[in-house]
Amino acid sequence: METNRNNTDEKWAALAKHLFDEPTAENSESLAADWDEDELKDIRETARQVDLYFQQKRFSAKEAFTKIDVARNQAATLKPKKTIQFWSRIAAVVAIALFLGGAGYWMSGRNGFNTQKEIASGQNADITEIVLADGSVVTLNYGSTLTYPDEFNGKYREVTLDGEGFFEVQPNPEQPFIIHAGKADIQVLGTSFNVNAYPQNGEVSVVVQTGRVRVSSNELTETGEKVVLIPGEKGVLALNDQVVQKSQNTDVNFLSWKTHSFSFNKTSLKDVIQQLDKVYRVQISTADPDLERLLLTARFDDRPVRFILEVIAMTHGLEIQQTNENEYLLQKN
Hints:
Layout: H1 2-20, H2 25-34, H3 37-55, H4 61-76, H5 80-100, H6 103-108, E1 116-120, E2 128-131, E3 137-140, E4 145-149, E5 157-168, E6 177-181, E7 184-188, E8 192-197, E9 203-210, E10 213-217, E11 227-229, E12 233-238, E13 245-248, H7 256-259, E14 261-268, H8 269-280, E15 283-286, E16 295-301, H9 305-316, E17 318-324, E18 327-332
Parallel strand pairs: 5-6, 15-18
Antiparallel strand pairs: 1-4, 2-3, 3-5, 4-5, 5-8, 6-7, 7-10, 8-9, 9-12, 10-11, 12-13, 14-16, 17-18
GO molecular function: sigma factor antagonist activity
Domain Protein FecR C-terminal: 262-326
Protein name: FecR family protein
């Protein structure tokens, strides 16, 4: 009995070596003796698809074994003996792939077999809104990327941000939400806040709108300093530092990229132009540098950039010249 089991183990080992290592003539001859040619063809194709799913990081172990069970149950009513044996072998191929090809994916993710996705806002003019598996909502700014799992099965709900995003996190004290952004780790239980982590800025900044968040450098030990932010506060971690600097947020327009709403109170035209350039991705210039010292007090709620420029021109007696699709020049009448 033990000899038969050893022979079976050797056959499966030979199959795994043939599928996932370089096949040899000796190995191929052994397979031909142990396996039916049609079954081998089907198993090879299944293994190829399994490998493709792993390469694309789209594999879901739970779904795969569910489909195998369904297929086995359906097949059992048609060809009881041979078909069940065949699907058992297919299940074993998937198991082999999980062990040989999937161990690295499992070990690299702290959420187990969660499929990883990358969503980027791309190069268009629209922002991207993502609803995560727990119901949390993330709004991404232009040129930003969020990496996140299909399901949050681990101790933490973890995502990675490159760029800028506004987070509205569903409360779950038993499974804290953690954002990895550059050098910063941002942990929350349930809140809404903005994270700006564009690499070119040289820093990671967090502004809290509601709730509480905890920010720390991922280069610190577990006992390192962690800064807690409450609504209205801002935390900044410079790339060349390990200490988060906390202050009151004085930028009332920190969410303008998301809302397209602005509030200016005796704001210099230079600062107004900088914000409009960033939010609308346009280039606004002045014909005379002295114009940048003009002040503007106004509020705009989700208005197009042309409308805002018309108000500026009317307020200060200027004229607008559109030199290109996304380029504007402000000059004196």
